[in-house]
Amino acid sequence: MRPPDQIETERLILRKPSLEDAQALFDTYMQDTEVTRYVMWRPHTHIEQTLAFLRICLEHWDNGQRFPYVITLKGSDDPIGMVDIHFNGSTAGLGYVVGRPFWGNGYIPEAARAVVEWALGQPEIYRVNATCDVENAASARVMEK
């Protein structure tokens, strides 16, 4: 199963990442210790780490393992965060992150809702899961929405 390369919402465009996104992602959140506090990787200290991350994201798209989208505001091509979906049988898993300047604007619930709605519209998917650190109250609120 392969989701579309781009999903559009009222305020956002979710699209397949490109290597050209590296600098914006690095600047927006990849090196921010507060944003990366609850993710599975350490903050990036060099742009090369972000480029390597994006190469892995593109490999995942190519081999159908998982599908990380960059999140952009309509009218801008600069990423503000990412949302990721992957499949395991009839279940989809969801992950997300957004840069600190964009916290509190409802962008992640909007992006997550769009990806979840697409996934649940597929006949082979009946459940979408997401988990977060017990101390990550903001992420838990996203899941509640």
Write up what this structure looks like.
The chain has 145 residues and is an alpha+beta fold. The chain has a single domain, classed as 3-Layer(aba) Sandwich (Aminopeptidase). It is 33% helix and 25% strand. The protein has helices at 22-30, 47-63, 107-120, 137-144; strands spanning 6-8, 12-15, 66-73, 79-88, 91-98, 127-129. It has a six-stranded mixed beta sheet, sandwiched between helices.
Describe what is shown at a glance.
This protein is of the alpha+beta class. 33% of the residues lie in helices and 25% in strands. The chain has four helices and six strands, in the order E-E-H-H-E-E-E-H-E-H.
Blueprint (SSEs and pairs):
Layout: E1 6-8, E2 12-15, H1 22-30, H2 47-63, E3 66-73, E4 79-88, E5 91-98, H3 107-120, E6 127-129, H4 137-144
Parallel strand pairs: 5-6
Antiparallel strand pairs: 1-2, 2-3, 3-4, 4-5
Helix pairs in contact: 1-2
The rounded Rg comes to: 14 Å
Strand numbers in spatial order across the main sheet: 1-2-3-4-5-6
Q: How many domains make up the coordinates?
A: 1
Helix content: 25-40%
**So how many helices?**
4
What sequence of helices (H) and strands (E) makes up the elements?
EEHHEEEHEH
Question: What's the overall average pLDDT, rounded?
Answer: 91
Feature tags:
6 strands; alpha+beta; Aminopeptidase; 6-stranded mixed β-sheet; 145 residues; 33% helix; 4 helices
